[in-house]
Every structure is written in structure tokens, then in C-alpha cells.
Amino acid sequence: MTTLFAFLLTLGILIVVHEWGHYRMARACGVKVLRFSVGFGKVLWRRQRSPESTEFVISALPLGGYVRMLDEREGPVPSQWAHQAFNRQPLRSRALIVAAGPAANLILAVLLYAAAGWVGMDEPKPVLGAPAAGSLAEHSGMRAGDWVQAVIDADGDRIPVQSLNDLRWHVTDATVEERDLTLEVTDAQGRHAREVRLPLAQIGSREVDAQLLQRIGLAGPYSEPVLGTVMEGGAAAVAGLRAGDRVRAVDGREVPDANRLREWVRASVKDGEPVTMQWRIERAGRVLDVTVTPSVREMDGVRVGRIDAYVGQAPQMVRVTYGALEGLVYGVQRTWEVAVLSLKMLGKMLIGEASLKNLSGPLTIADVAGQSVQLGLAYYLGFLALVSVSLGVLNLLPLPVLDGGHLMYYLFEGVTGRPISDVWLDRLQRGGVAIMLLMMSLALYNDVARLLGLH
């Protein structure tokens, strides 16, 4: 129920703001607005102050909306209202009305990002766990407990990294642009600063998806190799392990962090049978040697080892907040960055340099909306901002059925001095509908594939 409510709230806010942009600009340009609709299809609710005023409606299908303006191309217009018809307006006014919808979404995103910054978010500190063995991060010299302090850009400027989510953004952006990323890192106490260069250019933008950081080797935050809850009767309990035990070594190998310990436990199965492990632990200041024989479970068709205990501690968190003006600057900057990254990804998907798996639809939006609501207000505001940017950018694409397509018509009219012909307008609209249906089908397929674990 939370997911459904968050999804409908998200769609409602974004649709209303988008159409409100068109509506307000139309009114400002002197165009008569006949209907302001949230949704399509059967009207569920309507309000109209007088027969000559705008009709506001909510319709049954909430996947969009529209603003219907007086237009002589759609039916006869009384002579006293002819000057308020959309088609009678100068080219500049028509372009402004069309562009106002996407612009409203981008302005909303700025305010939402700013609000999220003002509210503040608790995010994982950018102290990294052990990189996966043989990964790009390991070959670059990353180690367990490395604290990423900053990113060094191409001009040598130092950009502070506030949280692990901030680092993820820099890594994703650099991978899409196919450029290497230089990090300034220290140990977990902030000492011994050094630079690490991640050769992300060799990965390629086709690899940008939800598993990108795992492939690079930056899977998650650092977690101490300390045991949490130990299940009664499980392998850990049988071995005499207790909550609070710190694991120092396994079979003579030093344990760098909880993630590496979990990997070794899962891999402790040979020919379908568990392999006994020798653990060295620290308990209440004493060092003990313990023999552990994991149990075997089947996960996704693979037999893996389990010790039936929670391995690791919660990562360190940092509070990320911004002041009044600082938050607005952050909102503008993040909106610009997300818009540019979205356009780059769309362009690379179009020419085959990025995976089409990155295209998401309503099921993914609903799922993430529900998760963000449960995490807190700031997370939901950030999610809403991200979708608002995406909606604004999508509507500016030069596809005939979108606002960007209409702006291309007006550009043609401005250059040639004449509007596009009705024949070509019909052809382009049909082509635009076909492309949109294809994109929607692909996005829905990706949604279902993610839910079924196929992506």
C-alpha cells in the first residue's frame, strides 16, 4: 500500500507541475485554456467556476495529463475569442507555452534537491570495504578501510566527497563519459593521504547499470568483521562463536573487513560439501582459535557456505545538510548534472554504446518511490527530484509527440518562415507515437526483468 501511495503521489506531483507550467504560460500569453486534466480517459472529478472558465479534471488513467487550449485547428472558435486561440499566437509565445512544461519540472527539481539538502540525510561515510579480489579497484591500489576524501578533476581541482552516495555519483558520471577518475584517499583515521587512479575509461558506458560499482570492486561501505546475532543451533553457535566476537584471521589469512569474511564463508564449499575453517577471533581482549564448519545452503542453484550468524556491523554514517543559499546552489548544480548525464545516457543508448537495460518504466518508479518514502522525507524528495529531471529531459527530446518535437516544428517555422505542412505533421506524429510505444514497451520489459531477477 505504501508503494502504491508513493507511486500515485509521485505521478500526481510531477504531472500537475508539468501541466501547470503549460497552463500558467498560456494564461500569461493570453491564450484561453479550456481544460486542465490530470490523467486520461474517464473523468472522475471535475471543477469549473463558470461555463467560460477553465475546467479542471482528474481522469481515470494517471499516466500523464494535458492542457487543452482554444485552437482553430481543433474546431470552430467564436469570433470574440479568436484572438485567444493558440494557433493565432506569435511563434515566440507558442514556443514559450510548449517549453514551460519541461521548464517547470526542472525548476521543481532544483527546489526538491535544495529541500532535501535543507532537511538533511544520513548517508554511509565514504570509507570503503575490501575491493573484490582481482577487481579494477584492487588493481588500482584500493584497500579495506580507505576513506575517500575527494575527487581530483581534470584541472587538478579538489572536489570533496561527502558520502558514499556522492562517490557513486562521481564514479557513474566518469564511467558514462569514459574517463579515468582520480581519488584522494586516506586511512580510516584520515591519515596517510594518497591518490588512487581508477581507469574507468576501459570499462565503457555499456557497463553502466545497477551492478557497476560491484564490477569495479567498490561494492559497499567498510564494516568491521564482528559477529552480530548468532542463531541457536547454527554453525557459528556449534563452533562456540558469540555475538561481539571480532574475527582476526581465517586459515591464516588476515580478515580485512566483514564483506571479505562473508565471501570466504560463502566459498567454503568444495564438491558440494563444507570445508572446515580455522578462525582466530578476539573476545573480551583474549585471542582464541576456533574451528568452524559452515552449513551448506543452495542459493540460485549454487551451493554456498553459511554460518547462521550476522557478519559485520552497521557502517559509519554522516549527516549531509546544506544551508539556505548553499542548498539552492546544490539544487541547481545537481539538476544540471543529472540532466546532462541523462542526455548522455540516452544518446549512448541510441547509438548502442550503453545498455538499453538502463531504461526504466512505471514498475521501477513505483518500487523506488515506496523504498524512498520508507527511508525518510529527504530521500523521497531526492527521488522525486530525480524523476522530475528525467521527465523534463524526456519531454525536451525532439520526438514529434513530445514538447521537444513541437519546439522542432517551431524551429523549422522560424527558419523557413512557414509552418510544417499537415501531411508531414501527420507522418511525424505517427512516427513519434511508434517510437514512444517502443520505448514504453522496452521500459516495461526491463521493469519485469528486474523484478524476476533476469537483469
Automatic annotation (TrEMBL):
Keyword Membrane: yes
GO molecular function: metallopeptidase activity
Location(s) in or outside the cell: Membrane
Cofactor(s) this protein cannot do without: Zn(2+)
Record domain PDZ: where: 195-255
Enzyme class: hydrolase
Membrane topology designation: Multi-pass membrane protein
Keywords associated with the record: Hydrolase, Membrane, Metal-binding, Metalloprotease, Protease, Transmembrane, Transmembrane helix, Zinc
Transmembrane segments: 95-116
EC number assigned by the record: 3.4.24.-
InterPro entries for the chain: PDZ, PDZ_6, PDZ_sf, Pept_M50_Zn, Peptidase_M50
PANTHER family named among the record's database cross-references: MEMBRANE METALLOPROTEASE ARASP2, CHLOROPLASTIC-RELATED, REGULATOR OF SIGMA-E PROTEASE RSEP
Family per record: Belongs to the peptidase M50B family.
The name this protein goes by in its record: Zinc metalloprotease
